[in-house]
Design brief:
The complex is a heterodimer of chains A (185) and B (455). Chain A is mainly alpha-helical. Helices cover 72% and strands 0% of the residues of chain A. Chain A has helices at residues 3-13, 16-39, 43-60, 69-90, 108-111, 121-132, 135-145, 150-157, 161-184. In chain A, 32% of the residues are buried. In chain B, the strands form 5 sheets. A 6-stranded mixed sheet of chain B has the order 1-3-11-5-6-8. In chain B, α3 packs antiparallel against α4. Classes of the chains: A mainly alpha (185), B alpha+beta (455). The interface between A and B is large, with 83 and 75 residues.
């Protein structure tokens, strides 16, 4: 049994209360801060999401086996993302994030296909443009736009640091150009 | 470098990418985001009240459970009353410490949602199946056309042409393309791993209740299956990215008493999904509608035997399409087609077409079956798109108006308006794609009433 396996194994052996406290201290606090700062959620909403996430983890942990601690961490993160999606879908009307470039984008449009409304064109265009990019290109855009250092990104993507700056500018240009093309079409 | 066009700045890019993450399972992005989230130093800290609520609830639950146990054993209480009383106590106490009163969902206390995680799961599942059943009901010809293109990608899908078929195929290996990747998150709807895959595809020839049996040649073989509904869009990529979920799946181990058979059963009590491990072998039947296309993935799990790995000796599948009874209600059933005729180019009923009888019939039906909700669909015969230059086209408006006319008449006949939805489809869902004769022309112009929900 590796160290990692041992870790989740011991986590599972904890009682429900200790489990919740441990998961909260180890992951929940950070995710709460993340939800507030990166998704512009108000504190109550963010807390509600974290709260749900942790209880969901506690309720379902027994059904899963995790190879490593990272897998467990990303499991928690995915649950949070799902709750975020639900949250945006439910609060269709109050748009928390304002989109100046994509005025009429409705977050729920893609998720709630059952409405039988034609899919939102802008969102579709965006996804198509992004689909054309390579994975690392999107990741570069994401990380840099959130203010991470080029050295870190280079480390993560395994690419030479000095090239990334050029790539980033070009990608931005490309994205803007393509989106403009689609919008005027 | 200076000429970065337009107003796109970093903030904008963040928003665009967040939008992407919410609308699509973009693995690469989510991974990077996750790394970033965990490497943050927390700047905002939850208030003490919030934290208290989180842990208190857990302690309380545990405490009360142990108390109940004690009393049941010591005093031989009938148990039920103790549970009711303590359950109520838990409820009130939790309500008093529930931190999310200001939530929009505040009508339902947060802890209830958490405790009912099973029902939430169920909701997710039903949502998935609803989506699948509401996916575009294209007609057969159109689907076949699109299939021809799609089929090149699905090289290993065997086209099942008859409504009842006995097909034998020795499954062998995973094929070239990994359509379904290994199940890292242990999603209960997905096979754990592709072992020996066979893809089948079939088109429903009529509205019916579909069941099938997968019978392995060798009784010890373990077969799993997943059933997908084809939606005519970029099915393959959505399948790989798991945007399209299976509508039925049975991943459990083989059952000796059933000789390893698995499939769909007519038993309404069966679940829609069975996860891996020991469990039942049959899941619930599916209501299929004429023209819908389904993909069935059959996976023979590799079994370790003494002489190495066994690949499964092949299997037989029997499909059964049982016709719905006249009175049977199911989502997607068409209630009425022909007699609702309109004056050309207008949303006024054509006199003498028997429209009054037709409306009475529909109203009568809805009164007899109060659980049914319907959608009134207006269709016209046109090649115009629904929108042009940001405005609805005239034909689109006409189709909406006609649906509205039927809607209004039904409201007049005393049907609650919340049970009915009205939608104009313009010319997007023609029965005959390219009409040549007057008669074919007529068939495309119609108002349909379709069951959207049976509650």
């Amino acid at each position: 049994m590796s160290i990692h396996q041992e870790h989740t194994y011991t986590l599972k052996k904890l009682g429900r209360q200790e489990f919740i406290t441990t998961v909260y201290n180890r992951y929940g606090k950070r995710l709460y801060s993340y939800a507030v700062t990166h998704w512009n959620l108000n504190e109550d909403t963010a807390w509600n999401l974290i709260y749900k996430t942790i209880y969901k983890v506690a309720d379902t942990i027994d059904n899963y086996q995790f190879e490593s601690e990272e897998k467990f961490a990303s499991f928690i993160f995915r649950i949070l993302i799902n709750y975020l999606r639900n949250h945006y879908r439910d609060s269709k009307k109050e748009r928390v994030v304002e989109f100046s470039a994509m005025e009429d984008v409705d977050l729920s449009a893609k998720i709630e296909e059952e409405d039988l409304v034609p899919e939102n064109k802008n969102l579709k265009a965006l996804n198509e443009v992004l689909d054309e990019m390579e994975d690392w290109e999107r990741v570069l855009l994401l990380m840099r736009s959130q203010g991470q250092a080029y050295s870190e990104i280079a480390n993560y993507l395994d690419k030479p640091e000095n090239q990334l700056k050029v790539y980033y500018q070009r990608l931005k240009e490309k994205l803007a150009k393509k989106l403009n093309e689609r919008n005027t079409r | 470098m200076n000429e970065i066009p337009d107003n796109i700045n970093d903030k904008e890019i963040i928003k665009l990418l967040k939008l992407r993450m919410l609308s699509k399972d973009d693995e690469a992005l989510l991974k990077a985001e996750e790394k970033m989230a965990y490497s943050l130093t927390p700047t905002v800290i939850p208030s003490a009240d919030m934290e208290k609520a989180l842990t208190k609830k857990a302690i309380l639950k545990k405490g009360i459970a142990s108390v109940i146990k004690k009393y049941i054993w010591k005093l031989f209480l009938p148990g039920a009353s103790a549970i009711v009383v303590s359950g109520a106590a838990v409820y009130y106490y939790q309500q008093s410490i529930n931190p999310s009163k200001q939530q929009k969902e505040g009508t339902k206390p947060a802890h209830q949602q958490v405790i009912m995680s099973d029902s939430a799961l169920l909701e997710l599942k039903t949502n998935a199946t609803n989506q699948a059943s509401k996916a575009a009901q294209l007609n057969v010809e159109q689907l076949l056309d699109s299939m021809l293109i799609e089929h090149a990608d699905f090289t290993n899908a065997i086209y099942v042409r008859d409504s009842i078929i006995v097909s034998k195929h020795r499954s062998n290996g995973t094929g070239n393309a990994m359509d379904i990747e290994d199940n890292a998150n242990n999603d209960s709807k997905y096979v754990e791993k592709q072992h020996n895959i066979v893809w089948y595809k079939f088109i429903a020839r009529q509205d019916s209740k579909l069941t099938f049996d997968i019978l392995p040649e060798n009784e010890q073989d373990d077969y799993d299956f997943m059933l997908f509904q084809y939606n005519g869009l970029d099915f393959k990529s959505q399948l790989t990215s798991r945007q399209i979920k299976p509508i039925r799946a049975c991943i459990s181990g083989s059952d000796k008493h059933l000789k390893g058979a698995t499939g769909l059963t007519a038993d309404p009590a069966a679940p829609a999904f069975i996860h891996s491990g020991i469990g039942k072998s049959y899941v619930k039947s599916v209501a299929v509608l004429k023209g819908q296309v389904y993909y069935l993935l059959v996976n023979a799990v590799q079994v370790h035997v003494k002489k190495g790995r066994q690949k499964g000796a092949g299997h037989t599948i029997c499909f059964h399409f049982r016709k719905f009874g006249e009175d049977e209600l199911y989502v997607g059933k068409r209630l009425y087609f022909n007699r609702l005729e309109f004056n050309a180019g207008a949303s006024v009923f054509r006199s003498g077409s028997g429209y009054m009888d037709a409306l009475d019939t529909i109203a009568g039906f809805l009164k007899r079956n109060p659980r049914v909700k319907i959608e009134i669909q207006g269709h016209v015969n046109t090649f115009e798109p629904q929108m042009e230059h940001g405005r609805k086209t005239e034909t689109q408006i006409l189709s909406e108006d006609r649906a509205a006319a039927v809607f209004d008449c039904l409201v007049e006949r005393g049907i609650d308006s919340f049970r009915m939805a009205r939608v104009g489809y313009g010319g997007t869902k023609r029965i005959i794609p390219v009409p040549q004769k007057e008669e074919e022309y007529r068939r495309n112009v119609r108002v349909e009433v379709v069951i959207k929900a049976v509650e």
